[in-house]
Each structure stands twice: as structure tokens, then as C-alpha cells.
Amino acid sequence: MSTPAFAPTPDAPAIDHRVAERVLQRLDWQVIRRLDGLLQGDYRTLFYGYGVDFADLREYQPEDDIRYIDWNVTARMDAPYVRQYVEDREITAWFLLDLSPSVDFGSAQNGRAKRAMLVDFVATLARLLTRHGNRIGAMFYISRVERTIPARGGRMQTLRLIHDLLKQPQLDNSAPTDLTPLLRAALNSIRRRALIFIVSDFISAPGWERMLGQLNRRHEVVAVRLWDRSEMELPEIGPLILQDAETGEQLYVDTRDRTFRARFAEAVQQREAALAEAFKRAGVDVLSLCVEDDLVRAIAQFAAAREQRAEMRVGVKR
Q: What is the pLDDT of residue 163?
């Protein structure tokens, strides 16, 4: 039996999905099954801020969660009352994908580029979301927003996203990345509240930070930061020619020079501090993905941290 192609849609021709299918099968076995075991199939801890609306109050019963006691009403009624919520289980998720040349960086130590981690993360989350009846869409950015995949549901949508990521050419660029147009495009085009994953190494011209905060006020935003250890520590291996992946500019350096390594380390610290401050000001949660990380462990730890923060928020509101 031949492998079927995607059914054509008005904005996309029919394409063969066999390669995407193999990627998804690998992730089903290596990542998603393990996540199911760790999270017991409950992925709400990943998306706690989405689609939960107050519905009613009722008198407390012994089996109720004490975190939902409304203490103001309890004081007025002289009896404990709990808040009830209705959860909108249909999520629309968007992946804002930075595919600029810097994500193709991969050190010789592991041989894996940041782009490979990007593909695995996006495919995994897309699979988890569509498997539970949700819709996903994506925006591809290189030097501008090159393509938008409208939000749809179903397994075919996940396969289409994987296919398009694998087929996306690695283009040379002549200017530094600027994430502002990508965030602005999302702010202007995604009208209904959504769950947004910004997947990037966040090596960008300044100015995007303000747009990130605006986006997070309208949607639930998660910053997924891709990085390689070689970007943080300069090995002492002698003379090197370093090339900017985006502008092509080359620089001769001697990594045995202690002064140069100290300046490099200082620049890294300043960049990390500025990035952490930008995420803090915008109020977004951050999932940090090193190319050497185990994706299952990283996602599970992120989910646990979000659940803990959600419980703290409930405690503050009580």
C-alpha cells in the first residue's frame, strides 16, 4: 500500500509526508511515551494559565481542594465555600520559530545543531496538543516572517509542520536577526487568546523586549531558548577564525590569550543577565534547551516548575 500524501488545501499543495512520519514515530517512542509516564498523561501543568474561567460558588464538601476556598465569601456566609471553574479544553497554540542562520550552529563536541532541537521540541509539543483535540499554527522567521501556517487540528497538521521545518532551506543572511517583526506579526494577526511558544536562541538586535511584554499581556507566552555550551565557554585551543553565522563577518582570535577569554566571559555574562531581565520584565516563563539536554527531562522539569508556580499563585490569592 502506498503512503498517502497530504490532502491539498487552498494555501498548500499536496506533499509526501513519509519523512515527517518517521520523525514523528521516533519522537512517539523516544519522547512522548516517556512524557506520558512522567506526567501521567496530564499536560495541563504545561498550560495552566489558559482558558480557566470562574463559573460558580458552592458550599465546601470534604473531598474538595482547599486551595479553591473563597475566604471572603466564607467569612460572610459563616460556612466554607469553594470557587468552581470551567476549563476551556480547546487550546490554539502558535509556534513562533526563529530559523535564522544562528540556529544552525552546532559545536563539534556533540555534532547537533540548535535547529535539530527546535524540530524535536516543536514536533513533540505539536503532537501532544493535537492529540488532545487542540489546534496549532506556526510562523517561520529568517530575516522576516517567511511563512505562516494557519492554525488547524489533527495529526496531519503536525506532519505538515514537521515536513515544512525539514524542508525549510538554511539561508545565508546579510544582517543580524531582529525578532521584533516576528513578535509584531504575532501581535497583529493572532486575535483570539492563544498559547504561544517563541522558539529561538534570542540572539537578536535589541528592541524586541517591549514587544514580548505586549504579546504576553494578550496571550500566554512561553520563551523556549535554544543554546549550545560552546556559545558560553571559549575553549583554549589556540588560534581560530570565528565567523558570524548571520553576517558572514570573520574575526581572527587566539583562544590562548587570557585577556581575550576574560573579555569573552564578561560579554557572555552581560548577555545572559540582559536576557534574564528581559524575560522577567515581560513576565514570561522560560524553557531553556541546551542541545545536549534530554528533551523529556527538560519538559518534565519545566512542567513541574510551572505547577509549583501555579500553586503559589493560588496560595497568594486565597
A: 94
